[in-house]
Amino acid sequence: YALGMEIDLASPPSDTDEDLGAAALGGPTSGGPPLPVGAAPPPPLPGVNLIDPFMPPIRDQADRGTCVAFTAMSCLEYHHRRFGTFSGADLSEQFAYWNMVTSTGHRNLVSMFPLLAQDGSCREGKWPYYPKPISGNDAQGPPPPGARRRLRPSGAVPSCNYRHVLSPRSNRRSGRAVW
């Protein structure tokens, strides 16, 4: 990982960690086994989608073309809620978008998801989303101090072998996300 940080991979992060990352995507720092399929969802929060209690609140990207960051963060926050790693996660769309644009120059989920698996994201409070476009600075960087400091690396993103017809079913039954 490019930030040159030392991270203790032996001890998983807790809900009190300042920053969350892609550890929930199966990395060595994920906070234990996933909840069993059918486990009770966390209590609803104000603004939570009542159709699926694991979904994070609906958010507004306003006038910026940052839908890819909002989509990716919703997926990652859903994963945190559904599998019990960090149930109250509110991750920074601003960081995710900046990281994608500055790292790849692209603006799509194909570029975003590997960066989330590699770098994770800081909490929204570390780098809040700014809804207004800034002329000549699409990514709105550089990040504030602390937004880059506590990223956590992760391991492989959970996946399944789509050549085997039962693999997606068995992954769903075991409670693992299928990407």
What does this structure look like?
The protein has 179 residues and is mostly helical. The chain has one domain (15-179): Alpha-Beta Complex (Cathepsin B, Chain A). It contains four helices and no strands. Helix 1 crosses helix 3. The longest helix is centred in the middle third of the chain and has 16 residues, at 67-82. The protein starts with 66 loop residues before the first helix and ends in a 6-residue tail after the last helix. Mean pLDDT is 70; it is low at 1-32 and 150-166.
State the distance separating the first and last CA atoms.
23 Å
Q: Tell me roughly what share of residues is in helical segments.
A: 25-40%
Number of domains: 1
Q: What is the residue-mean pLDDT, rounded to a whole number?
A: 70
Largest sheet: none
Classification by helices and strands: mainly alpha
Cα Rg: 16 Å
Label the CATH architecture.
Alpha-Beta Complex
Q: Quick recap of the structure?
A:
By secondary structure, this protein is mainly alpha-helical.
